[in-house]
């Protein structure tokens, strides 16, 4: 069975669609509970969820002081009763077959403890083919550091794995999933299905437009922090660390240029 963890902060306008996308899953029977963690919202999000879904016994709302998305996800993980945990951000939605397809994948491959999927209009086939029939790919730490993947809202993860790696670092407010994914990849390969099963941020591009990823500088600093930690723990070589510093710098410049171009284009329209 699966516990779904949704961190929520002032999400009254989007949380309805997120929760409904869980309820509308073709294998909703696999969902044991939906844990909505209100991270100190001030827009009445908790009351909205409690009232709108009053008859749904699977939905549980946890209220806490604002501490950021990492602390909200951790609160949900610690409260979860199931063997498996799925994440969903409060402005993202799952497509109807998401849980069914992932459940079939982990049932067919019991060694898989972490599995995500593609999102939006992206067509990513990165890593090593693992199960061609189910379009499953595996990612090791090197793959992950080149392409931080997959998106948290796509992930189904065994709670047992998190008990080994530790939870989200609550001191991090940017690139926090990268830090956790890195720790997981050190011990266990990550997997994803190369089909689209989630829509994130209303199909905006994955950086620079909304949410925490809008702060490109902070995201860059978070990614640099992550690889510094790996170097200090001797999980990557000094040469690879230098390569990543250069690579991330080029990516940062590219992202800034793209956002400036998009902003300029929209102003003209």
Automatic annotation (TrEMBL):
Signal keyword on record: no
Keyword Transferase listed: yes
Molecular functions (GO terms): hexosyltransferase activity
Location of the Glycosyltransferase 2-like domain: 3-127
InterPro entries: Glyco_trans_2-like (IPR001173), Nucleotide-diphossugar_trans (IPR029044)
Pfam families named in the record: Glycos_transf_2 (PF00535)
Entry keyword set: Transferase
Xref: CDD domains: Glyco_tranf_GTA_type (cd00761)
Protein name: Glycosyltransferase family 2 protein
Natural source organism: Schaedlerella arabinosiphila
């Amino acid at each position: 069975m699966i516990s779904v963890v949704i961190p929520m902060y002032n999400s009254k306008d989007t949380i309805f669609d997120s929760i409904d996308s869980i309820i509308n899953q073709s294998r909703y029977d696999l969902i044991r509970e939906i844990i909505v963690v209100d991270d100190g919202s001030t827009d009445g999000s908790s009351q909205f969820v409690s009232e709108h879904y009053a008859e749904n016994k699977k939905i549980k709302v946890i209220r806490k002081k604002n501490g950021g998305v990492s602390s909200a996800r951790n609160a949900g993980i610690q409260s979860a009763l199931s063997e498996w945990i799925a994440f969903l951000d409060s402005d993202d939605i799952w497509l109807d077959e998401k849980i069914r397809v992932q459940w079939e994948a982990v049932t067919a491959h019991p060694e898989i403890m972490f599995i995500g999927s593609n999102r939006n209009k992206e067509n990513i086939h990165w890593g090593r083919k693992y199960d061609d029939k189910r379009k499953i790919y595996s990612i090791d730490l090197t793959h992950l550091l080149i392409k931080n993947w997959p998106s948290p809202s796509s992930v189904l993860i065994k709670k047992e794995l998190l008990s080994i790696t530790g939870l989200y670092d609550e001191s991090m407010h940017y690139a926090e999933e990268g830090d956790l994914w890195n720790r997981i990849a050190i011990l266990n390969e990550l997997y994803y299905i190369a089909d689209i099963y989630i829509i994130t941020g209303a199909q905006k591009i994955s950086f620079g437009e909304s949410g925490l990823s809008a702060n490109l500088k902070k995201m860059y600093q978070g990614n640099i922090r992550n690889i510094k930690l790996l170097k200090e723990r001797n999980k990557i070589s000094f040469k690879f660390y230098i390569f990543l510093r250069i690579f991330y710098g080029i990516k940062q410049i590219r992202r800034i240029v793209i956002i400036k171009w998009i902003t300029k284009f929209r102003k003209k329209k």
